[in-house]
# Entry
Amino acid sequence: MHPLTYPAKVVEAQPNDFVVQFIDIPEAISGGATVDEALAEAAEALEVAVEYYLNEGRAIPDPSPVRGGQHDVALAPAIAARLLLIRTMTEQKLSKVALAARMGRDEKVVRRVLSGKGASLDLTLAALKAIGVRPALAV
# Structure
């Protein structure tokens, strides 16, 4: 299991109406006419809920293990990278100014990365590298 893959439960609420709920992120709810459609929508619901958590400064729980009958839904790479950056900065007690200095960039760049607004995935990965995290893509 990928560390930023969350377990989801799919329930058929009515015929052709499947609802997806996340055990660890209860605000993320989606649905669809089929299980596949509901799970495709679930990835976006998870992304929106995690974005909300990040913007509100709320702690994002680690994913529970996927159990029988559950599906695993991965966070989008850009969100996952940002979440890892924020967690690592918190663990290292690293300020935005300190990260900017390590990156050789202005603090405004770091603020954009942390807010998720106007920062590319490449820039987020550069910030992770600057704090000692070596990101890798897994499929």
